[in-house]
């Protein structure tokens, strides 16, 4: 943990007090990390200190839970891709790259999600899994109904055997092993200055505007509070309807652009 290294591994936890917490906050503030990462560093350290307090290893102090330790957001509002741009890029993509882009649009997957896909997570025209980034936290399992175009390409390019559903032409995973970002390496050849994460963001944004934030969070596989679990467990049909609508919305004919990703 960064806080432990900063504190000094040999130091006693009893040295943690209001002044030490203030110094820790200022140290984080001075780093070049993003606001989101700074928040996580402070949050992880706070959780650890609260555990120490709960188990009698540390005397509590008021600044530990103070709300004044904040970080200004450095996030710029992300504008979704236009439908014409989505159609143009997907239309120019060939072979397995077209499949990978469609998976990002259809299910909100990242490169890591695609790389981690298992044979057992694909059945009956659906992909059912937790996002790779949040799987260890016990977050929701989401079941995405695939568009016909996505399903046909997935059936064409899936691995016939083994644990992984999709591998590169060299038999390696799309992220890790011999290549760190195989999807992005393939995508760059199209020549578009559009980050791959924009495909996932665009789909999430369209669903949010049409169906609301709760369903968009469900589609993107975001973490859920305990009260969310029951709601989403009985909401599969609404997600299916949203994903079907998304496919029709994204690939509605646009002048001068081939509309279908087939």
Keywords:
about 260 residues; mainly alpha; hpI Integrase, Chain A; 12 helices; 3 strands; about 50% helix; about 5% strand
Architecture overview:
The chain has 262 residues and is mostly helical. It folds into two domains: 2-65; 83-250, Orthogonal Bundle (hpI Integrase, Chain A). The chain is built from twelve helices and three strands, in the order H-H-H-H-H-H-E-E-E-H-H-H-H-H-H. It has helices at 2-7, 18-30, 35-54, 83-92, 95-107, 111-116, 148-157, 182-187, 197-211, 213-220, 226-233, 236-250, and strands spanning 122-123, 126-129, 142-145. The protein has a three-stranded antiparallel sheet. Helix 5 crosses helix 7, helix 5 (95-107) runs parallel beside helix 9 and helix 9 packs antiparallel against helix 10 (213-220). The chain is elongated, with a radius of gyration of 22 Å. The N and C termini lie far apart (48 Å).
């Amino acid at each position: 943990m960064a806080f432990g290294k900063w504190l000094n591994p040999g130091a006693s936890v009893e040295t943690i007090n209001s002044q030490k917490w203030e110094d820790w906050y200022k140290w984080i503030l001075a780093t070049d990390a993003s606001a989101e990462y700074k928040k996580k560093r402070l949050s992880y350290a706070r959780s650890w200190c609260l555990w120490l307090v709960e188990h009698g290893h540390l005397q509590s102090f008021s600044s530990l839970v103070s709300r004044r330790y904040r970080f200004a957001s450095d996030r710029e509002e992300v504008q979704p891709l236009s439908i014409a741009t989505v159609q143009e890029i997907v239309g120019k993509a060939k072979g397995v790259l077209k499949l990978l882009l469609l998976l990002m649009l259809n299910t909100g997957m990242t490169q890591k999600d695609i790389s981690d896909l298992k044979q057992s997570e694909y059945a009956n025209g659906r992909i059912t899994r937790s996002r790779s980034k949040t799987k260890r936290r016990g977050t929701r399992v989401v079941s995405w109904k695939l568009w016909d175009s996505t399903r046909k390409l997935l059936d064409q390019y899936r691995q016939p055997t083994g644990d992984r559903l999709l591998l590169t032409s060299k038999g390696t995973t799309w992220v890790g092993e011999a290549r760190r970002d195989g999807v992005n390496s393939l995508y760059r050849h199209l020549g578009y200055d559009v980050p791959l994460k924009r495909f996932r963001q665009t789909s999430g944004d369209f669903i949010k505007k049409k169906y609301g934030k709760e369903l968009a969070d469900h589609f993107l596989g975001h973490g859920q509070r305990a009260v969310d679990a029951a709601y989403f467990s009985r909401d599969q049909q609404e997600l299916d309807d949203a994903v079907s609508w998304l496919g029709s919305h994204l690939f509605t004919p646009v002048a001068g652009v081939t509309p279908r990703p087939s």
